[in-house]
Write a structure and sequence with these properties.
alpha/beta, GIY-YIG endonuclease, 7 domains, 26 helices, globular
């Protein structure tokens, strides 16, 4: 008799799949991509994904049976699994980690231990105080969860108490799986079939003639019925101005019946417009893209800020929709989706679905299911980096807007993938075309275009013929010397702000630090309050009067006296967006100041409220961090100010100058997009810095050529690849010993291309000490062989007893 087995992916960071046994009828029903509940570890039940169905039993262990089948149909398709496999192989992580990152949390059901009382247990005298508290609680309710036991005992560690109760046979436990996704149901109302005939209707109206409210509800029902659409219970209540009790009374009398229909939580209500006619320059770019797609799967569109790249995207999307194929539109930040959603919905209405982390679990599950079913409402998917994991089956076009953005790279947790690169591979697997768009392309993408690996198109003119903004560099070292600074503003900056406000125009001010002040210092002894968990100073947030760590979220009240010397001479150093907002309120009391950073955009609609208020010109000056720089389109902004350019330049990273150029050009591009040439003022202590000179002339080619020369000289991408290894441990000596061993092992294999060990600029985060190693991979060196050697070294490292507790993190393309 044949045996049947399935290999499953578990949502845990383990490299291999696991085999479970199934019976013949289960084997006939189960398909690859379905979820099954399986027991793993100490009776914990996980949601596993079926990866293969076969007849080969495992050789090392005996296969357990599955707990239950969770799906009627596969929720992950074959092309998705191939893509996940590529991410797992390329980024050197487990399939389980990709699976956990890819699926909305509502699909990843995990079991909860539920505790029940044994009916026959009578020996209450043998129980300790803690055990009796649990046993007594079970006499008042049918079962308890682990969290309820924690609350009852007011202790975090309760498993020893539960274990003792199990040994005494006072309780028994079961693992229960809870379905977390609930579809949204809308309540509708209909007339009971007994009243469909005219005679019965007349009889009904006589019956309720004395109940005026009920009669009004029935008459309102017939008014709404004229539209020949299903009638919602709440619409009927509104039309008849009746309460839910009146409607329920009619249902109880069997006059009306309630029924429910499933609906999506997000729906577009509104009319669509026809596509705008492209300008001559946009038409040329569109034709070049179409032509390059004949030869190449990937094309880079280099279009200056405000050139109307979105209109070119829209034209391409329309062509793909007409072919009946799906489109993935990737954006680097949730902040950007707000404007793009409204612009695309104006053209495509209900064809668009949005997928990112500010949407609820239920909303994301609905997008997943709609895409799986290939519904028209999910033909265009607009999302941030996690959208590359969705179940596409008929992808025709991928657009990656602002392709240079570092937000496309996932740094933690694993998988540490780059959504831009993963999307290009996805496009190749699905035989779709990929368009990369940016005003400041990454050096790697531009290099690929010059090497003929990608197609290339340009948009060199702004929409409407408006000139690029005039950029002025302000030397604040000289301004300080001449005492021309007011707080953090030079006289030139204040004059430009005043001029813009008098013209009833808006201003954007950029400072890439949130909070009031990054450092609080005692002026007597020089001590700064430090985070107890990380090697960083605490940032002062004035609004909440608290000191906060931006790495582990530790917070405490603002100190009035120095903890070291007791002096009350506490001062702040540096400045963040909150301090700039406060200063502007004093300098411009008659104008409205807004702030856009992580602190003000935490809610689901946080970004939307600020952006809509600024678009409606309810805010005169908007202060913000780098989320302001990414593709936002405001018609009335005439001035952009960068308050301190030097913090962007002086950063220990080989991409610091490239990123500084990109950030400053992008934020400059928010000025003067519609009517007239905008102005940009950049405050700096070093106005003669090469990058700042290149920003002032918007000379991308010069920046690119200089960066390329430096990268070749110092062996960095795009010529060399990088793999970064980070070791983490709570004990400094353990992690230092581990990294010394690892350095010797890597240097034996990779020679001078193994760099380190080194400490990052912040060497302790969340009480974990960090040490880094970097491997450079030469242009002709095999990436596969390098990874194979690295895996061998990692396995040997993790087999050494004293290093087992060290976290070994691999980050491929760590930039």
């Amino acid at each position: 008799m044949s045996q049947y087995f399935i290999d499953v992916i578990l949502p845990v960071p383990i490299q291999k799949t696991f085999t479970y046994s199934i019976n013949k009828s289960e084997a006939n029903f189960i398909k690859k991509g379905m979820r099954v509940a399986v027991s793993f570890g100490k009776n914990k039940i996980y949601t596993a994904l079926v990866f293969a169905i076969h007849n080969t039993p495992p050789t090392v262990y005996e296969a357990k049976e599955i707990y239950q089948i969770l799906d009627q149909h596969p929720i992950v398709n074959e092309l998705q699994l191939q893509h996940w496999q590529w991410i797992s192989d390329y980024y050197m992580c487990s399939l389980g980690e990709v699976y956990r990152a890819a699926l909305p949390a509502a699909f990843l059901l995990e079991s909860e231990t539920v505790i029940y009382k044994h009916k026959n247990f009578k020996d209450e005298d043998t129980l300790t105080d803690d055990e009796f508290l649990i046993f007594e609680a079970l006499q008042h309710q049918s079962h308890l969860t682990i969290q309820q036991v924690v609350d009852i005992l007011e202790k975090k560690k309760v498993f020893r108490v539960i274990d003792e109760l199990l040994k005494k046979s006072a309780i028994y436990v079961e693992e229960k799986i809870y379905e977390t996704y609930k579809p949204k149901l809308v309540k509708y109302v209909k007339l009971n079939s007994a009243y469909h005939k005219d005679e019965a209707l007349q009889e009904l109206l006589k019956t309720v003639s004395r109940a005026q409210k009920q009669k009004e509800v029935i008459l309102s029902y017939f008014q709404l019925k004229a539209s020949k659409k299903p009638i919602k219970a709440k619409d009927l209540q509104a039309q008849s101005n009746a309460s839910s009790a009146v409607l329920k009374a009619l249902v109880d009398k069997n006059i009306f019946e309630f029924y429910y229909l499933q609906t999506d939580r997000i729906q577009y209500q509104g009319n669509t417009k026809s596509l705008k006619a492209l300008t001559t320059f946009q038409e040329e770019a569109f034709a070049t893209i179409k032509e390059s797609f004949q030869q190449k799967d990937v094309t880079l569109l280099h279009g200056v800020t405000g050139s109307g790249k979105t209109e070119v995207y829209v034209k391409l999307i329309q062509e793909v929709i007409d072919m009946g194929k799906q489109i993935l539109f990737l954006l680097p930040e949730i902040a950007l989706t707000t404007q793009i959603i409204s612009r695309l919905q104006n053209y495509f209405g209900n064809y668009i679905s949005v997928f990112h982390s500010k949407y609820s679990i239920h909303e994301r599950v609905e997008v997943w299911n709609n895409l799986l079913a290939n519904k028209p409402k999910a033909q265009i998917i607009l999302g941030t980096r996690s959208a590359v994991f969705l179940p596409f089956s008929n992808l025709g076009l991928i657009i990656i807007d602002e392709e240079h953005e570092t937000s496309y790279k996932q740094f933690k947790p694993s998988p540490r993938y780059n959504a831009r690169d993963a999307a290009i591979v996805l496009g190749g697997m699905q035989k779709a075309k990929t368009l990369l768009g940016s005003a400041t392309p990454s050096v790697e993408s531009y290099f690929n275009a010059t090497q003929q690996k990608y197609g290339f198109a340009t948009l060199t003119r702004r929409f409407g013929g408006v000139q690029l903004p005039k950029i002025e560099l302000i030397d604040i070292k000289e301004k300080h010397r001449k005492k021309l600074m007011t707080n953090h503003f030079s006289d030139t900056m204040l004059q430009l702000i005043n001029e813009a406000l008098l013209e009833k125009e808006q201003v954007i001010l950029f400072q890439n630090r949130r909070g009031f002040s990054p450092v609080v210092e005692c002026t007597t002894c020089g001590t700064s309050p430090q985070c107890p968990n990380c090697d960083v100073s605490l940032t002062y947030h004035k609004f909440k009067k608290e000191l906060k760590c931006h790495y582990c979220n530790y917070q405490r009240a603002m100190v009035n006296t120095c903890n070291a010397c007791g002096s009350n001479t506490i001062d702040t150093k540096g400045f963040g967006t909150e301090q700039i907002e406060s200063e502007l309120n004093e300098l411009f009391p008659d104008y409205t100041i807004g702030r856009m950073d992580l602190d003000t955009t935490r809610g689901k609609y946080g970004y939307q409220k600020i952006i809509e208020a600024f678009e409606a010109q309810e805010i005169d000056i908007l202060v913000g961090t780098q989320m302001l720089s990414k593709g936002l389109d405001f018609k009335n902004v005439s001035l952009v100010g960068v308050l301190n350019a030097d913090t962007l330049l002086n950063f220990p990273d080989f991409r610091a100058h490239e990123r500084a150029y990109q950030l400053m050009v992008q934020v400059s591009g928010r000025a003067g997009r519609v009517k007239k040439q905008g102005k940009v003022a950049i405050q700096t202590y070093n106005p003669y810095h090469t990058i700042l000179q290149q920003v002032s002339t918007t000379n991308y080619i010069e920046m690119y050529q200089q960066q390329l020369q430096d990268r070749w000289q110092y062996h960095y991408p795009p010529y060399y690849r990088l793999i970064k290894i980070t070791l983490k441990h709570r004990n400094y000596i353990t992690v230092t010993t581990g990294v010394d061993w690892l350095a010797k092992a890597l240097q034996n294999v990779f020679k001078e291309n193994a760099l380190g060990p080194s400490e990052p600029s912040i060497s302790r985060i969340r009480n974990q000490y960090l040490k880094n190693m970097v491997i450079k991979i030469e242009p002709k060196q095999s990436l596969e062989k390098t990874k194979t050697e690295l895996k061998k070294i990692r396995n040997t490292f993790q087999a050494i007893k004293e290093f087992k507790s060290i976290q070994f993190i691999i980050d491929v393309d760590a930039y």
